[in-house]
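Issue 218. Parser rejects a valid record. Input:
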Amino acid sequence: MGHLIERHASRYREKNAGRHLDFTRAWWTPPLAPAPAFELERGQIEQELDRAALVSLTDHDSIAAPMQLRVLQPYRRLPISVEWTIPYGGTFFHLGIHQMPAAVASDWMRAMDAFTAKSGAEAELPDLLAWFHASPQTLIVLNHPLWDEKGVGLEKHWFALGRLLGNCGRFFHAFELNGLRPWSENRRVTDLAHGLGFPVISGGDRHGREPNACLNLTNATTFDQFVDEVRDGQSQVLFMPQYQQGHTYRILRNIADVLSDDPEHALGWRTWSDRVFYEALDGQVRSVRDLWGAREPWVIRGFIGGVNLTRHPQVHRVVKRVWGSPQTV
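Output the parser choked on:
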């Protein structure tokens, strides 16, 4: 697949005077709109565990989802939270900033956006985090800290992580155990957190239709009380049964969810291509469905067809047998 994409990218360079196809201008959105995503998480907790649910819904570098939901009566107490991308040490990390004060959430978000967009701004990060840390109702979580998501190499990633912890660790309240990362990585995160005196907390990266495989158990009845517990070092994490399914199998299922159609999507994005966007050189943002029209590239059609084939019961049984071996937790 990568080889075929590179062939198309080469043709693009030939037709556009050597200009590279900039994949950083593209992004995709999950198959579920904010309200159904929230209800999926709440439903798992209330129906499978018979417990009251506290849910903090985050998106990458955007608080649009919680802000939109909070205008509706059932979600008025939803925390305003975000997964913030921070460039650092030649790579990047993600911080979960949970329950931002409503009065300053937009100001915080503008400051985060400015930091993320600026190169060489690492020295400004401690002051930003100190600002957030000063809010007693806010929780700052270092998400999946050992995942070299940018692919810079483990040695460089570890070095950058060490610098980040040395310069900013005093403002972090917990490390995330991620429901979509392998157990071997989560185990190392647990060891690292305990060695440095941090609690571990549940988190997700649940971008498909599977509810989060990692949850927190708490006696708190409000998110404020939960924040107090974690900031005091108390956290009990529960891994749900779906976490034990093979990691590759779960990733494939998530890809199938992302590329699925939904005729009843709350935002009207019925096909997967409605939910993938590209910012053109003129600044116009359009979905790839608008860009392609009826001329969807054959390599994409073939890939989508292969993914959809895994939904067929007989093919799905084979996929689960090959990649679904349970992982030991």
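Fixed in the parser; the record now loads. Residues 2-24+251-323 form one domain.
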